[in-house]
Amino acid sequence: MTEQDWYLQQCNITQYILRNSAVFKGEMATHISDEIRLIVVADQKPTQKIYTDILNAIRLKEEQVLILTPSQLIIPASDIKTVIWFIDITPDENWQNHLTIQTSSLDVLANTPQQKRQLWRQLCKYENYFHPEPQ
Fold this sequence. Notes:
Keywords: DNA replication, DNA-directed DNA polymerase, Nucleotidyltransferase, Transferase. GO terms for molecular function: 3'-5' exonuclease activity; DNA-directed DNA polymerase activity. It holds the Pfam family DNA_III_psi. One of its GO terms (biological process) is DNA replication. By secondary structure, the chain is an alpha/beta fold. The chain has a single domain, classed as 3-Layer(aba) Sandwich (Rossmann fold). About 30% of the residues lie in helices and about 15% in strands. Strands 2-1-3-4 form a four-stranded parallel β-sheet, covered by helices on one side.
């Protein structure tokens, strides 16, 4: 026991051990497996029927979608080679790239045919990212 540990113990101060200090340094990144075909960024996991309908329409399973909150999206945009769909989130300027989709809330989307058409056009444009050709 070090002298510092002894003093803390005498003052009845509980010591905690930080096991993953890289999290505070911004070094902790979310791992994106090879099976992930779409990253959804939303405040909470989408549960609306339109969300499951969209996944079915583009033939993706839940296991192929990574859902992140904005605070979990700490990966640099340049490191991501997957389509990113921001639902009711305005991405920072550094996230504006050719693989980004941005829509309003799913409730609004479900009731706005024009927005649904626009989303569908974008999804069709990224079909090769959802279902890449075997190499």
